[in-house]
Amino acid sequence: MEISDIVSKQKEFFKTNQTKNIKFRRMYLEKLKEVIIKNENLLYEAIEKDFGKSRFDTFTTEISFIINDINYYLKNLKSLSKTKKVRTNLINQIGKSRIHLEPLGNILVIGAWNYPYQLSLSPVIAAIAAGNCCVVKPSEIAENTMKVMTKIINDNFPPEYLYAYEGGIDETTELLKLRFDKIFFTGSTKVGKIVYEAASKNLTPVTLELGGKSPAIVTKDANLEIAAKRIVWGKFLNAGQTCVAPDYLLVEESVQEQFLETLRKYIKEFDYKPESEHYTRIINVKNFDRLTHLINKDKIYFGGNFNREELYIEPTILTHINWEDEVMQEEIFGPILPVISFTNFNIIVNQLSDLEKPLAAYLFTSNAEEKEIFKNKLSFGGGCINEVIMHLGNENLPFGGVGNSGIGNYHGKFGFDTFSHQKAILEKVTWGEPKIKYPPYSEKKLGWIRKLLNF
Ligand code: NAD
What we know:
With about 450 residues, the protein is of the alpha/beta class. It contains 15 helices and 18 strands. It is globular. Nicotinamide-adenine-dinucleotide binds near residues 111, 114, 191, 194 and 209.
């Protein structure tokens, strides 16, 4: 069947109203959970083939994340989809006001390759929890995970409800010509713009989960041990191929030397050697070449070794970095950590404010004033104080970018709302009509209305 036929069938199926039934949604969320658990080993094997991601990392950053999402919606489906009563103001008396959450209809989810399961399936889970039909297109760059996801979805779900579509740029371009009620895209800012433009032709709303250069700032008031430990973990997780990884480091000059030593200590301790099965590989030669080109030999503080055959790049720290260096021009998306030192916290925050708004930002300090400046002066999608990445792991927090790093958000309740329309309904009694609402109008009536509206 052609993809356009599948989308048409999903539109027809949505109109039957079956997906609006809570039992129906629950049944398919349970089903998805069941097939993921049943096929857990296939999922590990595929991602291992794609970029050497270990079973441990895949479980903690992908499978457990997805199962947790499903469990959240199973538990909260009823309360999330409940019609909400709101206050009815004076001019609308006597009446009742309600917000009905309505599924949008037919959703297109386009996934990225770096956390292939989570980034394709997490939006799907939110979309079907909210009562929609869905087409998901995983990234072709991680070919094996794309194939396994396509298989387990298409073998277990009716295509008129949920369908996984394999394809690269050409297929996605075709897909974007079709009409959806919402497009949820995860990927680069460059492709995000292509998706946004295509969506605008049909006035289709979008959620764009994009990237950017996310800074981590370490001041002299930070707990340097814990800052180094957490930054090393977050930067080299998935070999730096994480959208919210600290892209670069800003360290207060007076503690720079001690901090760099502590970073080195933890990189050694965490054992990212080529033979370590816990250190992920670079996804492909294209990205490998792009990354190794960014390693300026004169600026290596630690690491700098790589192996093209193995797609291995050692955790690398670059120092004496300027804002003009090539490594500071684009999102790195790999295990290279440039370090810039600063002497004045206010000046560095002002400098950051002039750059594109990143997906994340991190501050390590115990100084209350610095924390306030960070929260109030800098704009970024989301972030942490004295931690990296982990804000994603709390389903009570929205996850999304701002400005160049994205539009909209998801996770937990926010994911449910992302795929719902908030329909306002005012219901009035059929008696007690106020005369002042209707013509003929007079100065006296206007006077009453002004009084009523507190003018
Ligand atoms: P990408 O933009 O190259 O690809 C993402 C998706 O878009 C893929 O499914 C791909 O098939 C499709 N695509 C690529 N080119 C296209 C085109 N010309 N027309 C239509 N579709 C096209 O991104 P990527 O390399 O998979 O992921 C890396 C980027 O994604 C990084 O910038 C990273 O920060 C960002 N990212 C963001 C998040 C987030 O949650 N905000 C998560 C992961 C990755």
